């Protein structure tokens, strides 16, 4: 099964920004909804943001107005622009398409700390 490839994580100070990228090489990428998820230590994986095939977006309340999800259908890539980062945003971030089109990737670590 196809695995998404996430990148762009790192260490950032509170209030900083990061842009995550995820490449998913699946047929029909442009019409498949994509989600960004995160899993913090000791917590369950949670959906952070989702974008459907026509660009409609949804966000978890905890990241609304700070994170922006977008996609480039030519590059089979989905992005997560994160701003005003907080320590509680520290987690491994994953992307995954809706449905059985791909498995979970390795994720990318985001650490927010001074």
Structural notes for this entry:
With 114 residues, the chain is an all-beta fold. The protein has no helices and ten strands. The strands form two sheets. Strands 2-10-9-4-5-6 form a six-stranded mixed β-sheet, with no helix packed on it. A four-stranded antiparallel β-sheet has the order 1-3-8-7, with no helix packed on it. Strand 7 (67-72) and strand 8 form a beta hairpin. The N and C termini lie far apart (38 Å).
Search tags:
4-stranded antiparallel β-sheet, mainly beta, 6-stranded mixed β-sheet, 10 strands, 114 residues
Write the layout of secondary structure elements.
Elements: E1 5-7, E2 10-12, E3 18-23, E4 34-39, E5 46-51, E6 57-59, E7 67-72, E8 77-82, E9 91-97, E10 108-112
Parallel strand pairs: 2-10
Antiparallel strand pairs: 1-3, 3-8, 4-5, 4-9, 5-6, 7-8, 9-10
Short description:
This protein is mainly β. It has strands at residues 5-7, 10-12, 18-23, 34-39, 46-51, 57-59, 67-72, 77-82, 91-97, 108-112.
Note the overall shape. Answer: globular
**DSSP helical segment count:** 0
The total of beta strands comes to 10
Mean pLDDT: 96
Biggest sheet, in brief? 6 strands, mixed
SSE topology string: EEEEEEEEEE
Assign the structural class, choosing from mainly alpha, mainly beta, alpha/beta, alpha+beta, or little secondary structure.
mainly beta
